[in-house]
Design brief:
Strand content: 15-25%
Number of domains: 1
CATH class: Alpha Beta
CATH topology: Rossmann fold
CATH architecture: 3-Layer(aba) Sandwich
Largest sheet: 5 strands, parallel
Number of helices: 4
Radius of gyration: 23 Å
Number of strands: 7
Low-confidence stretches: none
Order of helices and strands: EEEHEHEHEEH
Distance between the termini: 67 Å
């Protein structure tokens, strides 16, 4: 460091030398998001998030059924004659939470897989309700990570 009155100060910072040859680690990212044709029940009480997710999933080829809470999701399960391949549900919702909905819905559709989503930590989940093939996705999440999680869950069912 050099300093002079009325002149200011100059600092010299010395950093360790870096070898000129650095190995680049290639991370393989799929060029496109995973797509599908399966039926997904999306249960989310935040309307804007539900609308964005549903629109995105439809653009990926999925058939999307939307519900604003667990009670509405259960009504869809009870009324639907065709199978639902996967449920994506928020954990904390009014009237009926996602873990309660998942438990009841699996009584209707025994092979149903569930992806729980939440802005809370995964400790908010009832561990007795979560099955080995269920998954958890922390909010906020990207549409690409949602697509990957959905594709992985659906592929586990085969």
């Amino acid at each position: 460091m050099t300093s002079a009155p009325g002149q200011g100060a100059a600092f010299n910072i010395y950093l360790p030398a870096v070898p000129s040859e650095r190995k680049q680690i290639a991370v393989e990212e799929p060029a496109v998001d995973p797509k599908g044709t399966e039926t997904i029940l999306l249960v989310e009480d935040e309307e804007d998030l539900r609308t964005v997710c549903a629109g995105y999933l439809r653009s990926q080829g999925y058939k999307v059924l939307e519900a604003c809470d667990g009670t509405a999701g259960l009504a869809i399960c009870n009324a639907r004659r065709e199978p639902i391949d996967l449920m994506v549900t928020d954990v904390i919702m009014p009237r009926m939470n996602g873990t309660e909905l998942s438990k009841i819905a699996k009584g209707i559709y025994p092979t149903l897989r569930t992806i729980f989503i939440s802005g809370y930590s995964d400790t908010a989940l009832d561990t007795k309700t979560i099955q080995p093939n269920d998954a958890y996705l922390q909010k906020p999440f990207s549409m690409r990570s949602l697509a990957r999680e959905i594709r992985a869950a659906l592929d586990r069912t085969r």
